[in-house]
Amino acid sequence: MSFGFLGIQFGFALQNANVSRIFETLGASKDELPILWLAAPVTGLLVQPIIGYYSDRTWHRKWGRRRPFFAIGAILATIALFAMPNSTALWMAVIMLWLMDASINISMEPFRAFVGDMLPNEQRTSGFAMQSFFIGLGAIIASALPYIMTNWFGVENIAAGGGIPDSVKWSFYLGGIAYFAAVMWTVFNTEEYPPDDIEKLKSENAEKGVFTGLKESFMGIFKMPKTMVQLAFVQFFSWFALFAMWIYTTSAVTSHIYDTSDTTSVLYNEGADWVGICFAVYNGIAALVAFLLPVIAKHISRKMTHLIALVIGGIGLISIYFISDPNLLLVSMIGVGIAWASILSMPYAMLSSILPANKMGYYMGVFNFFIVIPQIVAAGILGFLLKSFFGNISIYALIIGGISMIIAGLLCVFVQDNEVTVDLENKQIT
Fold first, then answer.
1. Fold for domain 4-429?
2. Buried b (16+ CB within 10 A) or exposed e, 85-119
3. Cβ neighbours of residue 195 under 8 Å, at least 6 residues apart?
4. Residue 397, H or E segment
5. What is the residue extent of each domain of the chain?
6. Tens-digit pLDDT profile for residues 329-346
7. pTM for this model (two decimals)
8. 415 with 346: CB under 8 angstroms?
9. How far apart are CA 126 and CA 191, in angstroms?
């Protein structure tokens, strides 16, 4: 059920670790990076709630409810992953980011609802933790691919004429193959439960057209349950921090630690490859911690577990400022990995416990507004802040992200979590 996330994360990890590198290689300046990254949150804003709405209202006797969306997204994302590293101009790379991110979102959004569809409430924390494991596992390999291509297989890490290196190109090709294979494995090996009333579902689809669906999707933000509203604030500051990290880690590490901004230099490309290793480490930590989080949550609650994880992650981001040895970055990434594991599981476990089953995909789509809105805000202000107040020095974007993640953790105190525990011996539910 969760194996497809292994492939999806190949796409996201390659994007997160390499897109800024590609943009800078094709001539983007540091303050332009956030705006160029705008494709990622905007496509999420448009695609995820719509896909969530329509995947709730889809049923096919053979293909089920969510799996058609998995398959379509996998095909489109694979094509985009093959095309992205072959961009020869900045505008081409930006367009390919739009296409790649939109395609990945078509697959990803229904996967979140899939766990809610298939598991009872008391198993969902473990279910989302399993998703976190496969996300982490996929991202470990994908993030490290350029480093592996260069150091293990001798693929060129600097392109003639300052283009995109072959190590990056081959990483994207392998990522595309892995994406397609993993997602289609889930498509062909998982059976879905049919809706309670298929005829009612068909009649609703006949009554509601495309524009009605779009309107309902975007109006859902004003109809959120109380817990969802509280979690929305936590999500906002969490994902603002993550977006700052994904945009600026390559630039921050190469300039602050490797002391170069020359994208044609050996040192810059070594630093960029090491960022991939750093991202692999935080995802590896997330994959391991994913199984520990449900155990901790049983003892101190899900929201307190999330609070602690986010604070640790924020400290990890801020600590990068004080590092001069690249190897010590891996210590910072341990904190980021703990936060990432929790971000991928705890909010969804808390949310799914208060959502109606027949609107799981719809509300998951609406909830994702609070993943993409902070990214849009970050894209709009981070470049301005760095240029106006921090001398265009990228490391300060990571400090801002760390502070934001700590704020997100503290906001967990206000979340009202509807945890359900089952006492099998006494046959009681509390």
1. Growth Hormone; Chain: A; (1.20.1250)
2. bebeebeebbbbbebbbbbbbbbbbbbbbbbbbbb
3. 59, 65, 201, 358
4. helix 395-411
5. 4-429
6. 999 999 999 999 999 889
7. 0.79
8. no
9. 19
